[in-house]
Design goal:
The chain is mainly β. The strands form four sheets. A seven-stranded parallel β-sheet has the order 1-4-6-8-10-11-13, with no helix packed on it. Strands 5-7-9 form a three-stranded parallel β-sheet, with no helix packed on it. Strand 2 and strand 3 form a beta hairpin.
Length: 191
Amino acid sequence: QNCLFKIDPTLFAGISNLFELDLSFNILTSLVYRNKSSGDYESVFKHLPNLLVLFLANNLVTSLKSKSFSFQDNLVYLGLQNNLIHSIDLDCFDNLNLLETFNMNNNNAIIRLQNRNKMQKMLPSLTGLFLANHHTSELIDLFDFSNLKQLSLSYSSINAKTIVRIPFDSIETLHMRSVRLKMSSDEINEN
């Protein structure tokens, strides 16, 4: 196992043609750093504009900040499974228009979503969404499922209304093992 806990922002300078990066099984906690001259947060991946695939599984990432993927316009796969993500600033998805697969399995403590109103038309190319072992319906409710082909919600707690929004006619692979549906007392009385 590696011991990478922090990424120096210059680490990837000069290798801008990198297409795939696997930083899984480290102890990374953040994907941004504070620029000393401006004081702003910037992506640790800012020197990797051609990145297509980014594996960040099995780290200790706790939040996705607005600049986390600000230079990854070409990213098609993002794997963040098995982290400790509890907060997501939805601005982090701004440049991910080509993202096809988003794996957030086993980040079951997401409690805060910032900039919720921005999510309406984000991630237009998303075809695979993996949210197994989630206990936050909020996150699932945000995605536009119109292009979705693969969806994993196994071992998750989700709002019953979310199920109605999933276009089952376009889904080709659906994993819903041991899903816990949450219903309000009004919804229970309606049934």
